[in-house]
Write a structure and sequence with these properties.
- The complex is a heterodimer.
- By secondary structure, chain A is α+β, with helices and mostly antiparallel strands.
- Chain A has 15 helices and 11 strands.
- Helix content of chain A is 42%, strand content 19%.
- In chain A, helix 3 packs parallel to helix 8 and helix 9 packs across helix 15.
- The termini of chain A are far apart.
- Chain B is of the alpha+beta class.
- In chain B, 44% of the residues lie in helices and 16% in strands.
- Chain B has 15 helices and 10 strands.
- A 5-stranded mixed β-sheet of chain B has the order 1-5-2-4-3, with helices on both faces. A 5-stranded mixed β-sheet of chain B has the order 6-10-7-9-8, with helices on both faces.
- In chain B, strand 3 and strand 4 form a beta hairpin.
- In chain B, helix 4 crosses helix 5.
- Chain B starts with a strand and ends in a 24-residue tail after the last strand.
Amino acid sequence: MTRKPSRALGAFRQGVLQNGIPWSCWHHEGDTVLSQQVWIAAGSAHESPEERGVAHFVEHLLFRGSANCPDGALDARAEEAGAQINAFTWLDYTTYTATFAPEATELLCALEADRIFQPLLGDKTAEEEREIIAQERRSEVESSEEALLQEALLECAFGTHPYGCPTLGYADDIARLNATRARRWHARTHHPSRMHIVAAGAVDVDAWVRHLEQSFGQARMGPVTALDLPPVRRPAGTVTTTRRAVPLDQLHVALPVGDAAARERASALTLCELLAGAASSPLAALLERDAAVAQELQLDVLETRGDSVALLQVSLRPGHAPQEALRLFDDLLSALETSDLDAHLERVRSRWADDHFGSWQCTETRATHLGEAATLLGDPSYALRRPFVPEETTVEDLRTQLRSWRQASGRHVVHVHADAGAT
Amino acid sequence: MDDQWVALQGPSFGRVRGRIVWRDGAAGDSASHGASVLAGELLLRGTRHRTRAQLEEDLDALHLHVFVNVHRWTTTVGFRVPEANLQEGLRLLEEMLCSPAMDDDELADVRALTDLDLRVEGATTEGLLHHLLPRAMYGTGAGGRPLAGRSRLRGALTRDLLLQRLERCRSTPAVIGWASDDPSRHAAALRAFWSSLRSRTPLLRKGITPCSGPMLSTHRAAKAAEGTQSSVALLLPAPGAQHPQRAEVALVHRLFSDGFISPLVDTLRTRLQLSYSVRGTWFMTQDKGAFCWELEPEPDRVEEALVAAQHAWDAFREGTWTPSFFERGRRAALAQRETSLGTITARLDAAVYHAWRGWPANNLALERERWEQLREDDARALARTLASPSALRAVLVDPPGTPQRDHLAEENVSSTRRKPWH
């Protein structure tokens, strides 16, 4: 039985603009700012191999001038209004975000609609932004062995499916980006029918919707082409051993989760929390405290619209090999499968809810939950039920998930040995 | 000096957040052994009445989140707990602070993990840069030491020494802040907790004063094991926290280095594509400070980035801005400050920090007023009083394979050699 959100969590409303763009908002008394986000259900997974990197490229270019805001003016006008604007691109979506005081609502709606629907996408700025993205890849990915390993792991987990390709694209892909490709991608993807606009915080809902109508509501719906996303055909499990210039040995494992909207997702999220959500959780306690093999440990679900994966990353202490950590992990899963999981589940339900309420003081977090729920699950109101996700799962679901995580056929393992010479 | 109290109301979804900031930190260690950092770690590893495992279980059961941050001049303990568990949570927190186990095995483990963390941090250009910065800014005195000390000296730390160190920290004046949906309802519990803590650790002495000024006398260069980009910090001598025009200096520095319309970001990122990441920070002690601008250029464009940053500062300092740039920048600074204080955690941290600095309780409002009143001519005049580009010093960490930069190597460039990259 899923608990209903209480009134203390704030008020949720949703609707549709005259031209069909859906909106949803989450108002809470006492907030001083609001976060508005425009979610577009088109991300790097919808690119063809020739287009790789273009979704993220267009996201960058939308900061570089539009019909009513020349290059540089968007940042200036937003900053002057006190707005913090940003954007992010992921496999399934592109999101434009702004956090600002309520009195700047009209301006921010106008600025955001202008840049999203009427960007300049000029040749010169495209060249400049391509170089900035090349820098971004060098700084954020190629300078980090950890980021490179994660790229390699996703390639293993998703094979040739677009989910296996990095959102930024590889260096060669970035070098091929240009204004023409950006214009094509923008025309194909930044279409009102793919949008969902969310806001959380100090929202005067009626005023906000009025401003949305005057800005986003003026965009014409027009015809739209379908975006293809092939079904995930998960490659058979792999085990790779590699030597890298990292200071410590590492274990990386991609574990199967299942469809975003399905029950498996709830049980995988719950299981990650059960295993490693707190210092006292079984996996964290075993690897970090009792067996003391791990310097650091992370276990998270990488949520996608199609099949998701859970990623386990362990940095090992000297004297312990990745294979040893994997054996301990498997032994723990096996022991949990036959244990009384009820008490674990009850504790996870309580902790998960507490963590969500703890993070909801931030309007941006609440807006992101709305947008993710709208884009990945088709139901923005799910955001308010998110603290109760573990209540959607049962002990039997957890056992099934535990079994699937132990099967070598479904998971991808990378053992990383530190190259002592490099450090 | 008395303890100070800060209480804030804001949307907290039934949680109480707290901060205790003592006027003591790593710079107060008697030697470079990292005692305060290790003692802070050990607070989370068991008490005299609970093993580490029991403590972790009990924290989880109460949904009590506790963190300990030991910085150069401060030790902060922060917590978050559901309102219903506040009393019990504070009792557990008091036990952690006053009766830590400081078990020998746990000490050995924390020591080993500290060594590993430093090894991991030192492998990347950015991590190594942050390791080198303190000495460049604060010199060879206590302020310039690595927070976690040196490995050899860490090895000599004992349980008794750590307990003494913790007790000394607890005896310094503190700022206590909390925030919740209705803070007045929690005042009694917080005051009782603090009074009980103080009765066990009476206020003995004044806290340490962050007064060792920046050195900035030489360039420093090093090489990391990982990465493809260089990490650079440009340091410029700047006023300290007691400067009479601190608020105005903060605005001027912000105009130069913060946001996409600032000359630093506009030049280095947008126009020249020299660095994807550009960050400006004003570090300050009581009497001196340093502006720090961090960049991540490609190794073969480091010199170009240094020159560009230097020229940008030179032009800015000479006041070559337009009146509209100043007005827009000021408006942005004022409005963005309000936005960045949009969460209760941000407001709590800011309020506690200002109280720790000894600034007036209404300092945030005062600063705002002074930003609003600053005339453009006065800002121009103030900019000219700030250090010239010739005083810029660089801390540079290159990725592997980069040729040696002899003219920037540590101790190879003396403080008398001006504008070395010209």
